[in-house]
Amino acid sequence: MIRRILPFIKKEFTEILRDRLSITSLLLLPSILLFLYGYAISLDIKEIKISICDKERSEFSREFTDGLISSGYFRITARRESPNEIESDLRTSKSQVGIIFYPSVYKNFLRNNEPSVQILVDGSNAQSSQYTLNYLVGAIERFTQNAIKKELIRINTIQTPTEPLLTERILFNPLLKSPLYLIPGLIAFVIMITGAISTTISIVKEKENRTFEQVILCPVSPFTLIIGKIIPYFVISLVSSAIMILLSILFFDLPTKGSLLFLSYAVIIFLLCASGFGMLISTISSSQQVAFTIAAFSTLLPTIILSGFVFPINNMPEIIQLITYIVPAKYFIAILRGILLKGSSLSELYPETLSLTIFAVLIVSASIIRIKKKGII
Amino acid sequence: MEIISVKSLTKRFGNFTAVDNISFGLKPLTINGFLGPNGAGKTTTIKMICGLLRPDEGSIFIENIDVIENPEKAREKMGYMSQNFSLYPDLTARENILFFADLYKIKKSERDNRYAELTDELNLHEYQNTLTSDLPLGIRQRVALASAVIHHPVLLFLDEPTSGVDPISRMKFFDFIRKYINSHKATAIVSTHFLTEAAHCNEIFLFNRGKIILSGQPAEIIQNFRYNIFETKTSLLTGEIKNILNNSEGIIEFYIFGKRVRIITEEDIDIQQISVRTGIDISNISVVAPSFEDVFISLTND
């Protein structure tokens, strides 16, 4: 068997290495993406532009806005006289958030009436408006607590100083850097590209060029052929993932607290999932175009959208959250974040690891059954 | 003793019957030509014999091996060259040929000897290290042939091996096949839509619409041809020629190439009668020997 696989591996590597563009993109593109995410595209929200219309003009409204600015996330870009102007600022993107203080807001607040502060957020970018809203809600909660505390002190109900009502400490990614959070997702993304898409395309390319017909007539089983095709991409994915982890350690202070062995296991199992998908797709596709479309929709998109890579799963509608259970990348990313950022062990991540392993077994078995039943051409 | 025996072979693709209940046997040490137009069922038949396609009905035996039940065992005896000269475009000619040798686990020293012999015989020296995607079609055909025979198969399947190749290369190709058959005690099946290539074969099988409409030795087939063939030069327009010939009795079929018209008639019609019936001057008509095109056209005339 090994003597039959070796010529395939040798041939496949010769072809890959000769095609400079594809080898460069397989090895370097992930690292370029890493830097792009790391330096250029940040999902962190900074300097959110605010327009303010302050009809209250009291200590309350000043403290509220000062509190927002001191958080470092917000910057006042305009002070307006009327609420209409605030809306116009949002429409023309002069600001992303509008705050309107109506008269007697503080009095209303203390009398337990409806306080009259209106906050308007530009929702045209759902992702950033969600983050903005989260920051705002946090800032408002902190402000409210302080205001209550001050009022209680003023009416002598409690003595100063008091313990803060809420303490925050962020573990594992204390500076809340997006790159650290995104690296596991990027690795998943790269493995899907090389493991699933490149494998599928290279198998279907042989179908299109009819070289499979030639090869299948040799005394070689379809599995020898497929394994011979998968191994080179497997190796490339491993190298590419290793480069990304190394670069993340060097440039983004990735902590790498967990076990290297566990990390390798997770990467290999996820690669098996990706290759299994690749094999399955190649059995149903007759052209590279079809294969790419199916692979992109069934593997790449879920890996980006439904895995928690970029968009938090908790924020998704319930039905979509249910769908994420059948996206192996979800488990893989959770495992990688655990290992790389928190130093979690297998015992802490066993549900995810078990799910991923079951997925790998299911997908690879399904593709083997499919090839046995239908052949590969 | 037949080396290949095919019985009641049928293959359908949806409503289309590509191969329709055909049976034949092939003798060893022969070149067998599968002739016919594109879509006649030649390639589908070859693919079924190779085990690349599963037939809907019928049986295929290679010596005593049931190809449908045991295709992998049958394949050890086969060499196959597809109509696309399927080679890896990013590999050189040498890498392509050696890759196929390695799949058959040929020992390195033996493999290198065979490779040297083949590059000599097929004149491939100067192209060894060129990527096959950069090679002209004729050379790619030779590289594909070398890849198909490096493991010395006793059954050689050549699917449209000469399409797009110049006449001299086609002749050399058949010379190589003949030598190979004799030196390796092999049998070849060659499918082609060039009916003139029938002359290179020991046996021919004329395919049309999924059926074998005629088979036998080429000389025998021509001898048994019952019709007369005439050729005439004309400056008339195609429409006018068609008008005259369609209205003349005893004409089985005619076809126009350039300024010449070839007319197939019943065997009792002679040159004078054809002149009278068509109004063409007798000095402008000549009697010609039938070719395989004539045979094929007369057989497929509806």
Keywords summarizing the entry:
heterodimer; A: 377 residues; alpha/beta; abc type-2 transporter like fold; 2 domains; 4-stranded mixed β-sheet; 14 helices; 4 strands; B: 302 residues; Rossmann fold; Alpha-Beta Plaits; 6-stranded mixed β-sheet; 4-stranded antiparallel β-sheet; 10 helices; 14 strands; 34% helix; globular
Helix and strand run of chain A? HHEHEHEHEHHHHHHHHH
Average pLDDT of chain A, rounded to a whole number, is 81
Output the radius of gyration of chain B: 22 Å
CATH fold title of the largest domain in chain B: Rossmann fold
Low-confidence stretches of chain B: none
Largest beta-sheet characterization of chain A: 4 strands, mixed
* Domain module tally of chain B: 2
Please identify, by name, the CATH architecture of the largest domain in chain B: 3-Layer(aba) Sandwich
CA gyration radius of chain A, whole angstroms: 27 Å
Shape of chain B: globular
End-to-end span of chain B in angstroms? 37 Å
Structural class of chain A: alpha/beta
CATH secondary-structure class of the largest domain in chain B: Alpha Beta
**Silhouette of chain A:** elongated
Order of helices and strands of chain B: EEEHEEHEHHHEHEEEHEHEEHEH
Describe the protein's architecture and organization:
The complex is a heterodimer of chains A (377) and B (302). Chain A is built from 14 helices and four strands. Chain A has helices at residues 2-18, 20-40, 59-70, 83-91, 105-110, 126-154, 178-208, 211-216, 222-252, 260-284, 288-305, 318-323, 328-342, 350-374, and strands spanning 48-54, 74-80, 97-101, 117-121. Chain A has a four-stranded mixed β-sheet with strand order 2-1-3-4, sandwiched between helices. In chain A, helix 3 links the parallel strand 1 and strand 2. In chain A, helix 1 packs across helix 9 (222-252), helix 10 (260-284) packs parallel to helix 14 and helix 13 packs antiparallel against helix 14 (350-374). The model of chain A has no long low-confidence stretch (mean pLDDT 81). Chain B is α/β, with parallel strands linked by helices and 302 residues long. Chain B has two domains: 4-216, 3-Layer(aba) Sandwich (Rossmann fold); 225-300, 2-Layer Sandwich (Alpha-Beta Plaits). Chain B contains ten helices and 14 strands. In chain B, the strands form three sheets. Chain B has a six-stranded mixed β-sheet, sandwiched between helices. A four-stranded antiparallel β-sheet of chain B has the order 2-1-4-5. In chain B, strands 12-13-11-14 form a four-stranded antiparallel β-sheet, sandwiched between helices. In chain B, a hairpin with a 2-residue loop joins strand 12 and strand 13 (260-265). Chains A and B meet through helix 1 and helix 8 of A and strand 6 and helix 3 of B.
